[in-house]
Design goal:
Helix content is 38%, strand content 17%. It is α/β, with parallel strands linked by helices. The chain has two domains: 132 residues, Aspartate Aminotransferase, domain 1, CATH 3.90.1150; 254 residues, Aspartate Aminotransferase, domain 2. Strands 4-10-9-8-7-5-6 form a seven-stranded mixed sheet, with helices on both faces. Strand 5, helix 5 and strand 6 form a beta-alpha-beta unit. Helix 3 crosses helix 10. The longest helix is centred in the N-terminal third of the chain and has 20 residues. The chain is globular and about 70 Å long. The two termini are 43 Å apart. It binds pyridoxal-5'-phosphate. The site of pyridoxal-5'-phosphate has 13 residues, from helix 4.
Length: 406
């Protein structure tokens, strides 16, 4: 399927987009917060509950066998999707946030007082607060890589901040505010030279670009299903096998154990040692359908489609005197932040909402970035495979009306 040529067919897979909000056709430009779901994802979850619902791994009956077979098959699908060497290296979590907490609270327990963690100024709170908590618990040093004026990582500063005490470099693949795509391969190779491990927050990357964890050579890669056309409440932690095997267990309980007695407990091997309790089975099955949906798209054409929209929207916004774009990364991805001079971002977003336009306003869970930019928030447009040029035209015309009104 070529989204450029068959865009209407791709868009038709998203029933939610065929509605009016506040009396206007819905224009959804908030896909970085969560993407909409194609019919196939909704149907897969529905079918599971109608035909196959049972708990996985435990029971010896036919429903459980079917549920387990589908559930474990998706693990293999995810491994293929990011080119993980084995399916056992795919750990189910609630989302990227939980995956980062897992690494911080498990791998991080191997760190010693004075060890250093490097983050960047553009991180989402999900990739800041878990490390900050760990730093407080274990007396570690958090260091922050600054940005250039364009909103890219300052690689010279990064090189200086890396030391032999750096144990972890945790960086977002794509910024959820600026759309910056970080040079992960270079960051990873530089980090490995000082013996540091690298966690890549792929939340904003996986829906927009092919990811190959072996080519990147990252130590951990995390993402959420709901930002890639899948359901909420399911996410993925990928890790190198030797690291996952060496890591202590984090959350504990049923499913993750081999043998329990009141004297002692032994644990299952990966992936199960990190998956206590009944998992989000329907979420995993929905994620499998989302991956199939993405795999059926022509990803090169999709990339071209999203890049064309991004350039078009930036050019349109640049024509409006009252608008200032926030960040000028050389190769932005699927996200544009801007402010309207002299107006509060929430007022603009509310007035746009009254015209059926859904965009995001605020700090985007990146308060340290906002502080650095000297802003209390921005307006953010974000795109996905279903976004059309007509969405941008409708948004620009509503923004112009809003500015006239103000
Ligand atoms: C870059 C980035 N990292 C992490 C997250 C957290 O994702 P989740 O809330 O699905 O755990 C987000 C969500 O907006 C994000 O954009």
């Amino acid at each position: 399927m070529n989204p450029k040529n068959n865009h209407a067919a791709v868009r038709a897979q998203f029933p939610i987009l065929q509605q009016k909000c506040n009396g206007y056709p819905l224009i959804y430009l908030d896909s970085a917060a969560t993407t909409q779901k194609p019919k196939a994802v909704i149907a897969a979850m529905n079918d599971y509950y109608q035909q196959d619902n049972a708990n996985v791994h435990r029971a010896a009956h036919c429903l459980s066998a079917r549920a387990t077979q589908q559930f474990e098959q998706v693990r293999g699908q995810v491994a293929q999707f990011i080119n993980a060497p084995t399916r056992e290296q795919i750990i189910w979590t609630k989302g990227a946030t939980e995956a980062i907490n897992l690494v911080a609270q498990s791998y991080g327990r191997l760190f010693n007082s004075g060890d250093e963690i490097l983050l960047s100024t553009m991180e989402h709170h999900a990739n800041i607060v878990p490390w900050q908590q760990l730093a407080q618990q274990r007396n570690l040093v958090l260091k922050v890589i600054p940005l250039t004026g364009q909103g890219e990582l300052d690689m010279a500063a990064f090189a200086e901040l890396l030391t032999e005490r750096t144990r972890m470099v945790a960086i977002t693949h794509v910024s959820n505010v600026l759309g910056t795509v970080n040079p992960m391969a270079e960051i990873i190779s530089m980090s490995h030279q000082v013996g540091a491990k690298v966690l890549v927050d792929g939340s904003q990357a996986v829906a927009h670009m092919p990811v190959d964890v072996q080519a990147l050579d990252c130590d951990f890669y995390v993402f959420s299903g709901h930002k890639m056309y899948g359901p909420t409440g399911i996410g993925v932690l990928y890790g190198k096998a030797e690291l996952l095997n060496a890591m202590p267990v984090w959350q504990t309980g049923g499913e993750m154990i081999k043998k329990v007695s009141f004297a002692a407990t032994t644990f299952n091997p990966i992936p199960f040692k990190f998956e206590p309790g009944t998992p989000n089975i329907s979420g995993v099955i929905g994620l499998g359908a989302a991956i199939e949906f993405i795999n059926n798209l022509d990803r090169t054409a999709l990339h071209h489609h999203e890049q064309t929209l991004l350039a078009y929207a930036r050019a349109q916004l640049e024509q409006i005197n009252e608008v200032t774009l926030v960040g000028q990364p050389r190769q932005p991805m699927a996200v544009i932040s801007f402010i309207v001079n002299g107006e509060h971002h929430s007022d603009i977003a509310t007035l746009l909402d009254q015209q059926g336009i859904a965009i995001r306003a605020g700090h985007h869970c990146a308060m340290p970035l906002m502080d650095t930019l000297g802003l209390n928030g921005t307006l953010r447009l974000s795109f996905a495979c279903y976004t059309a040029q007509s969405d941008i035209d409708a948004f620009i015309s509503a923004l112009q009306k809003t500015l006239e009104f103000l």
